[in-house]
Structures are given as structure tokens and as C-alpha cells.
Specification:
Pfam families: adh_short. Belongs to the short-chain dehydrogenases/reductases (SDR) family. By secondary structure, the protein is an alpha/beta fold. The chain is built from nine helices and nine strands. The chain has a single domain, classed as Rossmann fold (3-Layer(aba) Sandwich), CATH 3.40.50.720. The strands form two sheets. Strands 4-3-2-5-7-8-9 form a seven-stranded parallel β-sheet, with helices on both faces. The protein has a two-stranded antiparallel sheet with strand order 1-6. Helix 2 crosses helix 9 and helix 4 runs parallel beside helix 5.
Length: 277
């Protein structure tokens, strides 16, 4: 997004994720998804790009969905993915996306940092549409195919904020808490049909979404930008580092593999000890 503003999307074109390392690729070589089709949202950068790369390298046919055409083109130059340019906040347009998918990864997200009394009403609605209503609609239109095949994997990229709250992030926390509940309902309904549904809950990940929060976090908390990572982002965690996108991708790949057949309705926390307090 060309203008500076206090929100950022995981599908932002201004900073795209580089390819995962050779070691990361080797760590996921044991999962074979040949013959499976996946749809990954917010796939042009950050977590979404890392997951799309991992699924493709495991043999899956991957539809990489994002509004950032340039980012998708870059991703497609590094992996065998099919770019699908779409704005996931356009709810009516979701019906045009592929529905014959075995794996659905709901990842696209946006952040806005503001006190509740100043939080723009349209921004709150937009965030819930993008991060909760859109995943529901994508799940709803993908389940018939999964049920028909007797196999499916739904991986929802939630957040530690799906389990804990932070000030100034009312819309994001609300959406992620809602996604957690939705994932559990899907797990219960999908179990008789061989469909699992899980959440991944990382703390702050080194993505454009996080990088674009720094200036606004500094303003909101009244501290210099240079202190945001240490004093805000890493303050509640025991492991004092940002999570890397490839780490999230490795867990997502496991959740799509054969060892996860009985793993459903739960959340996998990658929070560096945040929720241990």
C-alpha cells in the first residue's frame, strides 16, 4: 500500500517473504501431498507465501490467493503455484474462487492499532469481514468437495491474540477469537467426513504485517520506534525473538500430512511462552 497508515495486511506488496531456506525445505520433505489441491489466502508475502511454498514443494497443487499481483508473480517464479488475484474482503467475489480444494489455509489478515473510542467503525467492520466472515465463506464453499472425497484439511492462521488480548487491537483480537470458535465448530462437523480443522497461534512473526505496526505502536504507546520490538512485541514472551514465517509453514505442513489425522479442533501455540504466564 503506497500510503502510510496504521494498518497492514499480510498480503501487502511492499515487503515480500523470501524463499524458505534449504534446511527448512529438508525439514518438511517427509510430507507427500501429491494429488492434493490447496488454496492459501494472503499468499503473496509473509506466512502465506511460506506456506504456499511448503505445500507446493510437498507436491500439492496450490492456488495462491492475494490482491497483490506483483507479489504473486514473484511467488510463482519460485514455486509451482497458480496465482489468483482477488480481494478477500470482497465477500461476493469469494464465490469465484476455486472450491475443489482438499486443503484450505485461511491466512490473510490486517491490523489496525487504535484505542476503542477512536477506532474507525468502517475499519472494524472491514477487519471482521476479511479475517472472520471471509474464512467462514471459504470454508462453507470448500466443505462439500472435502466431504465428497472423505478427506480435508483446514488450517486457520490465528494468533496468540486468538487466546490473549492486547490493548488497542479490538478488531484483530475479536476476529481471531471468532476464528478460534469457528475452527472448533468445523472440527466437530467435519470429523465424520475425514476433515480436520486447526488453528496455528504464533506470537509476532517477521512479516510485513508486523513491520508496519512499529510506527503506530510507537505512537500509541508513546515510545521511540527503536524500542517497539523489545518493549511491546517481545515483552510478553520468554523466547526473545520474532517467529520466522518458515517455522509457521513447517507446522502447517505437518497439519496437512498423514500424522495429523486425529489432530483437530485444537490450537497450536507458537508464542515463545507468552501464554505460559
Amino acid at each position: 500500500m503506497p500510503e502510510a497508515r496504521p494498518d497492514a495486511r499480510d498480503d501487502d506488496p511492499e515487503s515480500r517473504e523470501t524463499s524458505v531456506t534449504t534446511d527448512d525445505a529438508r525439514a518438511t520433505d517427509s510430507v507427500d501431498l501429491t494429488g492434493r489441491t490447496a488454496l492459501v489466502t494472503g499468499a503473496a508475502s509473509g506466512i502465506g507465501a511460506a506456506i504456499a511454498l511448503a505445500l507446493s514443494r510437498a507436491g500439492a497443487t496450490v492456488h495462491a490467493v492475494d490482491r497483490d499481483e506483483a507479489g504473486l508473480t514473484d511467488l510463482a517464479s519460485r514455486a509451482a503455484v497458480t496465482p489468483v488475484v482477488a480481494d478477500l474482503a470482497d465477500l461476493d467475489a469469494l464465490a469465484d474462487l476455486p472450491t475443489d480444494v482438499d486443503i484450505l489455509v485461511n491466512n490473510a489478515g490486517i491490523q489496525h492499532v487504535s484505542p476503542i473510542e477512536e477506532f474507525p467503525l468502517d475499519r472494524f467492520d472491514f477487519i471482521l469481514d476479511l479475517m472472520l466472515v471471509s474464512p467462514f465463506r471459504l470454508i462453507r464453499q470448500s466443505l462439500p468437495h472435502m466431504y465428497g472425497r472423505g478427506w480435508g484439511r483446514i488450517v486457520n492462521i490465528s494468533s496468540v491474540h486468538g487466546l490473549r488480548a492486547s490493548p488497542f487491537k479490538s478488531a484483530y483480537v475479536t476476529a481471531k477469537h471468532g476464528l478460534e470458535g469457528l475452527s472448533k465448530v468445523v472440527a466437530l462437523e467435519g470429523a465424520p467426513h475425514g476433515v480436520t480443522s486447526t488453528c496455528i497461534n504464533p506470537a509476532y512473526v517477521r512479516t510485513p504485517l508486523v513491520e508496519k505496526q512499529i510506527a503506530d505502536q510507537a505512537r500509541t504507546h508513546g515510545i521511540p520506534e527503536s524500542e517497539v520490538v523489545e518493549k511491546v512485541m517481545l515483552s510478553p514472551v520468554a523466547v526473545k525473538r520474532l517467529v520466522e514465517p518458515a517455522e509457521v509453514a513447517a507446522l502447517a505442513l505437518f497439519l496437512c500430512g498423514p500424522a495429523s489425522a486425529s489432530v483437530s479442533g485444537t490450537s497450536f501455540v507458537m508464542d515463545g511462552g507468552w501464554t505460559a504466564h
